Amino acid sequence: MKEGRKRYVVELRKQLDRLRELFASKNENITFDVALQIYRLVHTLKGSAPMFGFVRIGDIAEKLVQQWEWAQCQESISSTNTSVIAGFQTTVSEGTVWLQQLAMELDVYSQELDLDDKQDQKLLQGAALAPGCRLLVIDDDEVLRSYLVRRLTLEGYIVDDAHDVAGAQKLLREFTYDLITIDLMMHPQSGYELFEFVKEDPTLKWIPLVVLSGRSDIHDKVRCFYLGADDYVTKPFQYEELSARIYGLLKRTKNFEQMAFRDPLTGAYNRRYFDHQILAELQRIQRYPSPISLAFIDIDRFKSINDTHGHHIGDIVLQGLAHLLQNHLRETDLLARFGGEEFVIVLPGVLGADAKKVMETMLQHTHAGPVAQYDGQAFHITFSAGVCEWSDGISVAEWIRRADDAMYSAKQCGRDRVLLYADDMSAALSEVSAATETRKKTVLIADDDRILRSILVSKLQHLPVQFIEAVDGEEAYSIIKGQHVDLCILDGVMPRLDGFGMLEKLKREEAMPDELHILMLSGRSRDEDMSRGQQLGVNAYMNKPFSMVELEFKVKQMLELA
Questions:
Q1: How many whole angstroms separate alpha carbon 138 and alpha carbon 133?
Q2: How many CA atoms within 13 Å lie on the side-chain side of 126?
Q3: Which of 62, 155, 281, 341 is catalytic?
Q4: What is the pLDDT of residue 127?
Q5: Residue 327 to residues 36, 166, 347, 440: CA-CA distances in angstroms?
Q6: Taking the model in full, what pTM does it have?
Q7: Can you list the alpha helix ranges (DSSP code H) found in 119-215?
Q8: pLDDT at 433 over 50
Q9: Rounded mean pLDDT of 391-416?
Q10: Distances from the Cα of 34 to the Cαs of 23, 66, 77, 230, 342, in angstroms?
Q11: Looking at 1-10, 483-492, 526-535, which range is the least confident one?
Q12: I need a surface site. Which of 7, 292, 413, 527 has the fewest CB within 10 A?
């Protein structure tokens, strides 16, 4: 059947060429015989095309048959040449539009057959851009509009269409488009009416706009370019040229967007784009009132990831989280990297309480598995998030600050949670105050010098931490194995088992807790000791005697208390 369809298309092209020749007959060549040839050709198409699945061609041929029926009826009637010519010219004039549509349908069917042969849309010109690219075709010519929609769809684009300005405006409010084609001469409103709507809307003004016009007047072209058109194509045009122009505009736009508006590390939008788009979203809801919420996200204990594994691992974790978030957001949501390990998400049309649920679902996804893997090691994270719904009258800076305050409160409440901003955030904090007290940071001081242990406890007791003491490496090892410890201040040289030996034992048994920080104290300043400590997971190294101010600073930094 497929081979038969291909052969039929070849014959169909010959028949179409013959019809064009007959339609173009000059007066001296117009006879009943010419009209009958046309009638018989279109009658044959009407019967044969549907047999091969070309239903639309059969429908068009039927309309042509009805127009040329007069030729068969008058075959045996004597008529003057003048009446034949008049009837012929009238029918040609009325049938030309169907002949053009017949050519378009044949073109589309040919494309479909080519796709069947290739079975790989990546060979099409637009394939590299097509996934996710949504186009809007605006034209009151139903035949041309339908043709463009089908051809562009075959290239892999998502294509919507509208026959007038009002319909286009409705679609532009509902969907996000990558490119618009628009006819200038439409009824009841011209395409110029849409220029103002698109180019004065901050959310639409950057969308590439291609004008399709039957007028080649230079003044029209100049006016369109001044109004913001990106390209101007005069009808009639070759589809291949239009396709190439669309591809070029999309490719250029995507490249520009990647350079100007994307964070190069994570692929999320950057702060510059966020600042522009948040204003555009707020202008939109001023015209079309609806809720909108903002989520502020900060990765928990991200600094320890960089300190323990290096900044390249931190970068991989950032990429992993951005990918996770983007995969679970709607097309209309906006994810941007705000700075460092902070992300913001704009959720149009979402109430604050619902946005909190969305972010809690995101948080559950981080619990489900690692966000990144490197060299066989998996990296798990959590984040703290604050959510704030927009309220009329506040500035963008105040809106962001409120979401940030809610995020900070989530950190204070123990991290790994989402809080919705309230005018009095102390209420949220009070709910977990008791639990927070029981989760004070635990600091293990492992040193055989009792006086030094006493001094350290005395100097650090003002911090919100609890202390455990160990006199040697063996005791410290047992404590770490038996309970949660956030920070171990570890002497390098101790009886029974020194600090290095304890770390080697934990590493050998794969019992080193992921969140344990190590601050090693040593009376020796040898480079090999420092190198050995780094290999065993030591986060910081201080030589005795040391400054208590510096030590307190390091403790607060490692426990994220600073």
A1: 16
A2: 26
A3: 341
A4: 45
A5: 62, 33, 14, 35
A6: 0.45
A7: 142-154, 165-174, 192-199
A8: no
A9: 91
A10: 9, 16, 15, 47, 76
A11: 1-10
A12: 527
